[in-house]
Amino acid sequence: MLLQRLGNVAVLGLCNPAQSVGIGHRAVHGGYQISEWASRQMFTASTIGPKLRELYARAVSEQCDASQADKLEKGTFAAGCFWGVELKFQRIPGVISTQVGYTGGQLDYPTYNDVMTGSTGHAESLMVHFNPKLVSFEELSRVFFESHDPTTPHRQGNDIGSQYRSAIFYHTEEQRRVAESVRDRVDDEIRQLKKSEETRHVVTSIVPFVQWWPAEDYHQQYLEKGGQSAEKGNTETVRCYG
Q1: Cα distance between residue 32 and residue 216, in whole Å
Q2: Structural domains of the chain, with CATH
Q3: If you ran DSSP here, which 8-state letter would residue 216 be given?
Q4: Do residues 139 and 73 lie in contact, with contact meaning Cβ atoms separated by under 8 Å?
Q5: Nearest by Cα to 76 from 84, 67, 65, 85
Q6: Please, are residues 120 and 114 in contact by the beta-carbon 8 Å criterion?
Q7: Which parts of 23-153 fold into alpha helices (H)?
């Protein structure tokens, strides 16, 4: 066990795949889950400000990253409404943890309401920690492209706005290379399928990962909480609104 002190708050951390952690994101929403391999919730939103939340999340992430560095890698994807995207990735064998949030924007500590204005530059996104011995980043990228329409800029179905754009935020140069390769192959496949129709092409952006802001607890594992199975290997249709 790890004892971290941030300000006047004591944080007890456990990097364990079987456990989860939450800290207060907003007083209205309660704690948010950081990952399946961190410690149990130790305090609530009413006692913690935004800066302390960031420090706590960073401390837990760094400690768990250090202990799991030889096993886990990160991947960050944006493919429209993050509820459905998360459930699809939860079901993938080798994906250890998932968290929805906001990235790619300018505003610090964005809320869901901020992002929904479309003015902050953030995309609704999913961060996963995965075991590359069980599933490769290439395989995850393929699932990403199969999970949404990558040819519609700033739109997925009825969800319209830059916050619903298609993007891969790469963490390493190797991820960039793999993502671009998969994107190009998918683009070729789509062009072949659509060759007799109006020309369409993949508009997915592949950009460096910069800053991550976890979404409110209400959004974490939303569809699983609503009763849809997150069991590994499950192939049931994902119903985005439960």
Answers
A1: 6
A2: 1-70 (no CATH), 71-242 (3.30.1060.10)
A3: P
A4: no
A5: 85
A6: yes
A7: 50-68, 82-90, 112-116, 137-146
CA distance 39 to 146: 33
User: Choosing from 15, 64, 81, 240, which is the catalytic residue?
Assistant: 81
Length of the chain counted residue by residue: 242
User: Residue 76's closest CA among 22, 130, 36?
Assistant: 130
Contact 122, 109 (CB under 8 A): no
Contact between 223 and 240 (Cβ < 8 Å):
yes
DSSP 8-state assignment for residue 14: -
Residues near 7 by Cβ (< 8 Å), separated by ≥ 6? 52, 55
Mean pLDDT by 10 residues, the chain (242 residues): 34 37 32 36 42 56 55 96 97 98 97 96 98 98 96 92 97 98 94 70 96 97 96 92 55
Q: Give me the residue label for tokens 């391999």.
A: 37
80-83's contacts with Cβ under 8 Å and 24+ in sequence apart are 80/124, 80/148, 80/156, 80/157, 80/159, 80/164, 80/166, 81/124, 81/156, 81/159, 81/164, 81/240, 82/124, 82/125, 82/126, 82/215, 82/219, 83/219, 83/222, 83/223, 83/240, 83/241
Asked if 64 contacts 38 with a C-beta cutoff of 8 angstroms, the reply is yes
64 in active site: no
Torsion of Cα atoms, 221 then 223 then 226 then 232, to 10°: -80
CB 75 within 8 A of CB 67: no
Q: pTM of this prediction?
A: 0.71
